[in-house]
Structure formats: C-alpha cells, structure tokens
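To the wet lab folks,

You asked to see what we're planning to order before we commit. Fair enough. Below is the target structure as tokens, and below that is the sequence we designed to fit it. If anything looks off to you, flag it before the synthesis order goes out.
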C-alpha cells in the first residue's frame, strides 16, 4: 500500500509541476489532463482497497488481489507515462535559441546603429567591427557559415527589450556588464570581448586638461547608458555641478557636441577615440586622461537558455584560446596535423568536441577558420591595423600582461 501512496504522490507532484509550466502546448495539456484523471482513478482504487482491508471479515486473499490489481494498474500507468511526450520546463538546459537559429538559418544579432570599431556599416553597407565579428563567430559555430547573420541595429534604450522579447538571439553592442543588467533584466552576459572605461572629450579651446576642472560644464551624453549614471556619480560625489545634454543616439550626441550644444562629450573611451576620428578636425579636441568607470563590454543572451548561453560563451573562449595557442585563421588547417593535445582539443579533433553544446564537432575550427582568433579580430577592427589604433592594454591575454583569460578546452 505504501508503494501505491508513494506513486500517487509522485504522479500528483508531476501533474502539479506540469500544470505550473508555461509551455502551454496542446500536447502538454493532454498529458496533464490524462495524469489528473489517472490520479483520480488511483485515489478511488486506493479508497476501495483501504475499505477492503478495514473489513476484517474479508479474507487476506481478497486484499492481496486488490494489491495485485493496483500494482498492475501502476505498471500500465508507468508504461504510458514513459511513452507520453516529454514536457520541458523553463529551466531546461536544452535550448530553444539554437533550434530557432538552425530553423531560421541565421543568427539575429543586435548591434549598435553605428559605432566605428564595434558595429558600423562601411561604405558598401556591410557591417564591420569587433562586435559584428563576434556575431559572425557565433554564426560560424552554429551554422558553419559566418555570413549567416542578420544585423538588427538597436538604440541604447531598445537593446534589452529586443533581446528579452526574442527579436534578437544575441546582443553584441558595446554593452557594459553590470549587476543590475545581469540580474534584473532577464538577460545574462556571456563574457567580455572588450574591457573599456568611461572618458571625457573636450574642445581644446576650452582650455581644460583634467576632468577635475569640469565643474559647471554642460555635457553631451547618450540616454539609457551606464555613461549617464557614472556621470551623475562622478559629479555628485565631488560636489561638482554639470548640465547633462541628453541624446538618444550616438550620431545625435556627436552632432550636439560638434554644434557646441555642450562643452564636453562623455562615453566609453574606445568610442571617444572612434568618434574623434570622424570629426571634421580631430586635432581640435582632446580626450582627458581620467577614466571614471569600469565598462566591461560583452555579448548578452536571454536568461533561461543555458545551451545558448554556453554556445556564446565558448565561442568567445575558442577565439581567446586560439590566440593563446598560436592558432590563426591562416594556420588552423595545418594545425590538424599537430600532436599538441591542447590544439587537437581546441579544433575538435579530440576531447569533448561539440556534443555538450549541441553543435558539430568542427564548430570551433569553423570559428577560427572563418573569423580568426581574438587577436586577429581585435587588430582588424579596433587595433593597430584599424583607424582606431587602440593598443591591446588590459585587453591583452593574461600571459601578456592583460586580463583576457579563457577556461581550457578539456
Ligand atoms: N557601454 C555603455 C554605453 C554604450 C553605448 O550605447 N554607447 C553609445 C555612445 S558612443 C553608443 O554606442 N551609441 C551607438 C548608437 O547609438 O547606436 C552601456 O552599455 O551603457
């Protein structure tokens, strides 16, 4: 009898959990309904059986018959349950995003409206930049083709809603990782592809050489950014006054600065260097030496899909490990002959390969072959081979004095 009660309890719990899940498909509802009616059936049988055993006059063989009948029923129900369609809960590790991406045939990547070095359309209208190349790396990992990306330009204010609502599969848009964003917005940061910090840019004619001299300044800043918040902290903490002049896009912010609507422009330092280059006379402005915040920029995914989270995270790690092991887009084919176990695992010849991520075994090979290692991507987009000429600095690998570090492929 105890066994029966345990089983009813197990089925009841399952039915309760299923009724609480939000998948809501017709199949799931049918499973829930059938489980509920089975519980009812079993409860009735249990009641009958208990009455039977209470009646001392009944023979022990009748009781045994009842138990046998119930056990048979349980066996039948167990069999049916095993054959019933499986219901996935929200915390499931198998991800909907990979399935969606495979079905649609491209990765929907949220990028900026245009920020040189990170995500910016070139003269031919092709998207370029460090974040754009990261979108391409995820397409190479999942679809085996880096060109299978649909770029969705998003303003600072639109970006998280677009990710939460499923409008984009991935956000790669110079976005700062912070506690609030990582915990309260239904999104997760999958790593850092550029360590940045907030700076100030002023016209030389202002005669200011340090941020500490900015008391009373009017400052052009973009809405919905960490920039806006850091600015308030910096001035309030130092009891300095300022007037924020707020714009919703980078283009408008720069125009405001150029047109003299403010004395100062503030944003991530990498962006200041990029935007300065596009001014009619870059020599007329200077970037002040102070960095007032930490801006770790990285790719963002929706919460609740750990498979997709892992894919995005390990795509970045593949690029970093490739740099560390000296594997580039040019040398990766030759590396197939390498005996180095680290190299063999990184390009999917040995080791865990793609199984745990739900990807093909050559996923990381495709990332390196088609996009390159982290250094190749960095140099091409923001580094010394690009107009921005940013030095690696903190963005160098850990073994080269920077803080870029990836867990091992093993
Ligand atoms: N990293 C900061 C700032 C990001 C940001 O959006 N910066 C502006 C200022 S340059 C930008 O990229 N604008 C591009 C656009 O408007 O599309 C954040 O995540 O809040």
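Sequence we intend to order:
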């Amino acid at each position: 009898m105890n066994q029966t009660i345990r089983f009813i309890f197990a089925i009841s719990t399952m039915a309760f959990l299923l009724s609480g899940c939000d998948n809501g498909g017709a199949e799931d509802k049918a499973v829930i309904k059938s489980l509920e009616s089975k519980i009812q059936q079993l409860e009735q049988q249990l009641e009958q059986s208990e009455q039977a055993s209470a009646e001392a006059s009944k023979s022990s063989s009748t009781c045994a018959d009842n138990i046998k009948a119930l056990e048979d029923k349980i066996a039948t129900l167990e069999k049916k349950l095993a054959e019933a369609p499986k219901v996935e809960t929200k915390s499931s590790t198998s991800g909907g995003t990979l399935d969606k991406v495979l079905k649609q045939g491209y990765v929907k990547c949220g990028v900026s409206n245009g920020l040189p070095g990170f995500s910016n359309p070139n003269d031919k209208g092709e998207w370029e930049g460090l974040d754009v190349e990261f979108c391409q790396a995820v397409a190479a990992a999942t679809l085996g083709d880096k060109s299978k990306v649909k770029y969705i330009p998003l303003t600072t204010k639109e970006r998280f809603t677009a990710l939460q609502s499923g409008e984009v599969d991935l956000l790669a848009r110079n976005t700062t990782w912070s506690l609030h964003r990582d915990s309260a917005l239904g999104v997760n940061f999958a790593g850092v592809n550029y360590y940045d910090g907030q700076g100030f840019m002023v016209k030389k004619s202002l005669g200011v050489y340090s941020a500490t001299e900015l008391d009373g300044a009017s400052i052009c800043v973009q809405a919905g950014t960490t920039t806006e918040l850091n600015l308030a902290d910096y001035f309030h903490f130092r009891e300095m006054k300022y007037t924020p002049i707020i714009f919703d896009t980078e283009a408008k912010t720069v125009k405001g600065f150029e047109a003299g609507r403010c004395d100062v422009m503030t944003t991530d330092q990498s962006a200041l260097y990029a935007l300065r280059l596009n001014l009619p006379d870059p020599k007329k402005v200077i970037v002040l030496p102070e960095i007032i915040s930490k801006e770790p920029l990285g790719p963002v995914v929706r919460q609740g899909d750990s498979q997709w989270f892992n894919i995005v995270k390990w795509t970045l790690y593949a690029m970093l490990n490739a740099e560390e092991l000296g594997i580039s887009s040019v040398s990766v084919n030759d590396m197939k002959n390498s005996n180095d176990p680290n190299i063999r695992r990184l390009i999917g010849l040995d080791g865990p390969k793609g199984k745990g991520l739900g990807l093909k075994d050559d996923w990381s090979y495709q990332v390196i072959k088609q996009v390159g290692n982290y250094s190749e991507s960095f140099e091409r987009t923001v580094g010394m081979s690009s107009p921005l000429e940013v030095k690696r600095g903190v963005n160098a690998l850990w073994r080269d004095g920077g803080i870029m570090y990836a867990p091992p492929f093993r």
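Structural context that might help your review: The first strand starts at residue 107 and ends at 111. The two ends are 49 Å apart (CA to CA).

Thanks,
Computational group
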